[in-house]
Amino acid sequence: MTMPSLKTRQIYSIIRSKSLLPESPQFYVDLLVWFLLLTPIALAAGATCAFFMLALEHSIHFRFSHGWIIYLLPLAGMLVALLNTGVNRLSNQTEHLKGTLLHRLITVFNTLIKIPLAFFSAVMSNLFGASVGREGTALQMSANFADGLSHLFDLHAHKRKILIFAGVAAGFGAIFGTPVAGMLFVVEVTAFAGTLSYRSLLPCVYTAMISDTACGVITDFLHIKRLNQVIAAQPLFAGNWHFNGQNPLLLAKIFLAAVLFGIIGRIYMTGLSVSRDVFAKICKPAYLRPALGGILTLLLVLLCGSRDYLGLGVISSHPPAGASVIDFFAGANNGFDWAWKLIFTLICIGSGFRGGNVTPMFFIGAGLGCVLGPWIAPEAAPLFTGIGFVCVFCAALKTPITATIIAAEVFGTENLAYYAFACVIAFAVSGSVDRRPEWLEQMLQDHTGL
Questions:
Q1: Residue 3 within any structural domain of the chain
Q2: Which domain holds residue 428?
Q3: Does residue 297 share a domain with residue 162?
Q4: What's 282's DSSP letter?
Q5: Does residue 330 sit in helix, strand or coil?
Q6: pLDDT: which is higher, 90 or 186
Q7: Do the Cβ atoms of 392 and 426 come closer than 8 Å?
Q8: Count of domains in the chain?
């Protein structure tokens, strides 16, 4: 027994001498602390996103079967805006207590109360027909839970920022079922802004993986399919439509399509900024802007003669002939659906409806790709629907790596070279990246002061 023990000590001594193991016990203490902080964030993000998707599914089907409810959209938007304004004002009434334990506890409560508020706001927006997404709410809920924990334990601003980033990665990975893309999304939006620390990589990938797993378990139990699962089940993916090996002519056609997708993505984000500014100028009270946006949305429904552009846009009330992300991947082609969705979304998000802006990007990109594919490359038409799906997202949010990984996680890796090529082209024509995204800027200012 002496020899093995001696050899074990010698091996351990050699490993330590070569700096293969951290010498300080503090390293292992810190690792345990991060594990205890990140695990509840990831589990909470996964569970919250699962029940959020359940609520959205029921609200959307309720709207499909009770069409009259869309006429309450202006009133619903105004009430949700008033609720959010009231909560935000209450959150700013405790500055005189700053530095006290009571202030910290109130801050934790104010941060956590925004989770059900964001949940309720997004569900109401989709229930009554506002053309908004859902990922913004998922990211906000996860980040607020992370920030609540950081305030509760009075963490330093740098650690607080890492927790918020980990929460964002968890929300993104859970809501779309794309954990690797969730981690890379945080890396990209912070790297371009110059705020990335490699210390955030491990927390982000850990929370994204755990939240995705938790959300998957709960959604399977609730019989809910996430976007990646629904798309994979469409007839479009049942056949042999993979194009292994790069075809120069097909690459040239993808190049032209990617340029157009990049331009649309740029128009989308610029349009959102312009829309917000216009609503702010013509309607000073913020709580009245959603009411005005709701009225304009109803007028657009009368003008286009369709309700397919209301709400999330993932499913339609009459598949597969309707206009939705799923219908596009099932082969539906209705011409200018993507353009109508763009207009509806600019009005709803610009006027202040809550939810997110990524899912409408998927609708717009897939819809435009569904139109372009049969026209410029009939032999590879399905490929263009998928390329449009990720390229508009890539161009709008300036995240080519994340978009490429989304394509891999949702569609598989058979055509990854085409997706990567298209995303880089779309990114190149989408404009420069000169500052942090607005949502990240606001989040960091509100929670960390960075």
A1: no
A2: 235-439
A3: no
A4: H
A5: coil
A6: 186
A7: yes
A8: 2
